[in-house]
């Protein structure tokens, strides 16, 4: 999976204190933040700067264990003049730790993290403060501002000093209940927003952005003109002013060496050949020495000549290759999360770039960065996320859906009921699961690869342990293995009766069950579909036939079929499909149902009987 570090705002990312706190606890800290934004005319647009003051008062003995402040900046916002102090003690700047962010975002690349640790100066009752200025490269990309979930937010104050003809508006997204907001206009040239006394809320598992109270989007207008984009089209137009949305090679580049194009006439096979050439010939390297490279791609001829680039370099290079073949292929930026908080995105929402080709009424997506993903498919980590297609004439924000594909993991096993710890299994990994293993195989030794396969596959199944994987075949999107399977904890065995769970997928039962009494969407880190075929043998073994199914196979679905074709044999077929990362309504109910089955007693399991035997 991608290691994604998403900054909802580059000015207010406060990483804090224990997620184990509950809402009933007394506040451990009083945290306040005041940001003064100054908007001044600059040519036909405006210059944006801000001054931030953050204050944290340590109220309990426990609170002094969290003494770090973090400041983020990036290519669109540069932090300077950082000051920090505790009481009268000013912290020496040599004690600040500056590092590169570990996650890359299309618009946040070249991000720095400035860490200030007050550890040596903090005691209960102390008050720590930091202050800094931020200069923004473009007011049109005003960052979303996160409302920190800490215990507690005493006050968040946003002050906007602006010309008379400029108006400031706000959109809000709250994870739980709405938070009272005070908006005032102290004069024609100042707008103020205040939140006060926001208590900590206990994190809900599988809830979208539950690490904060929500987010604030700032909308700036001048009369009828939108200074910050107010539509998808306006956002694409803004980005098109930074870099050409239809990149082309210079005329001097006559013959581009994609031999596989010879004889091809249809656009899709041509795109597949170009995608393969880029995956094979362009190394993934992010140009950390170039701040502008965090926002816009390099010219296609530059990437082509030096044979390396990041995701946006590769996507725009592929677009230029395709355009040389007379094909309109567009770059598309992809959101870091499988949800959109607001109808109109900001730069901070995106962290990857792929390509999009219009096929009639539908879009065909491909990812030239994902070298082990078959053309026509996209990596698992971006499925169900949103893609903004940089078609300058008809831009679209669409949800990325995977074409119908085989189940991610298919297991077939046959075992005697008295030897459940010694089953043999045929394991097929498909699509994204296979792609991930194909990638890791090129970077791990045999021992580490075995451990990865064992932990990964076992982790998807309830109370089963897979080991001793032996490869037996593969193709472009599948890997086949034989494996040893221990099912002795999955099936409850007795002399006369055995009990078989109705769910095979390994859900986190306790955490998922916490969501049964609310109505908010369930947000998963990944989708997955499993097929598990089990044949059990045993003297006089028999069971009643059973078929159950629930849900929608196109979104969230579960089925179970159990029968005895003859005495001494029981066949079980499990199928689970979770095709969405954000589940609502019937899909949400299905997932909670499947999860609940893991906590059932024997009375709600499938009973297998050995006729003629005494318990």
Summarize the helices and strands and which ones pair or pack.
Layout: E1 29-42, E2 45-58, E3 68-73, E4 77-86, E5 89-90, E6 97-100, E7 112-117, E8 127-136, E9 145-148, E10 153-161, E11 166-174, E12 182-187, E13 190-198, E14 212-222, E15 225-226, H1 232-240, H2 267-281, E16 283-284, H3 300-306, E17 308-309, H4 311-324, E18 329-335, E19 350-359, E20 362-366, E21 386-389, E22 396-399, E23 409-416, E24 423-430, H5 431-441, H6 446-460, E25 465-475, E26 478-486, E27 492-493, E28 497-500, H7 509-513, E29 522-523, E30 528-537, E31 541-542, E32 546-552, E33 556-566, E34 569-578, E35 582-583, H8 585-596, E36 606-610
Parallel strand pairs: 1-10, 16-17, 23-30
Antiparallel strand pairs: 1-2, 2-8, 3-7, 4-5, 4-8, 6-7, 9-14, 10-13, 11-14, 12-13, 14-15, 18-19, 18-21, 19-20, 21-22, 23-24, 24-26, 25-26, 27-28, 28-36, 29-35, 30-34, 31-36, 32-33, 33-34
